[in-house]
Amino acid sequence: WNHGLFGCCDDFGTCIISWFVPCVTFGQNAEAAGVRGCIMGAIIFFVPLLNLFCWVKIRGAIREKYSIEGSLINDLFAICCCGLCAIVQEAQQCKNSPGAAMAR
Q1: From the CA atom positions of the chain, what is the Rg in Å?
Q2: Does the reported pTM lie above 0.70?
Q3: Which of 26, 71, 77, 89 has the smallest number of Cβ neighbours within 10 A?
Q4: Contact status, residue 59 vs residue 72, Cβ threshold 8 Å
Q5: In 3D, which of 80, 100, 94 has the Cα closest to residue 14?
Q6: Whose CA is closest to 30, among 1, 56, 12?
Q7: Which residues, in sequence order, are CB contacts of 18 under 8 Å at separation 6+?
């Protein structure tokens, strides 16, 4: 990862948006990872268990896309222990990596 799990404030704008409306950042991450569209991702954020399944899938897709080492267990740990930090970390990775432009 380009930013650590607790590097939330490295991108203060993303941090604030994720704090108040995490569904927006979740949807953007889903779209950037190629898992779901932005709107569908934002809606899925509010569906218990489905959101966890999709979140693990999104995080795994981002790790694969940017060749980041890690595992399902690490992803679950990050999501369950500090979900907002994980959302921001994913967003920062997608924004700041080469070839990070989102397809629309």
Answers
A1: 12
A2: yes
A3: 71
A4: no
A5: 94
A6: 56
A7: 8, 24, 25, 84, 87, 88, 91
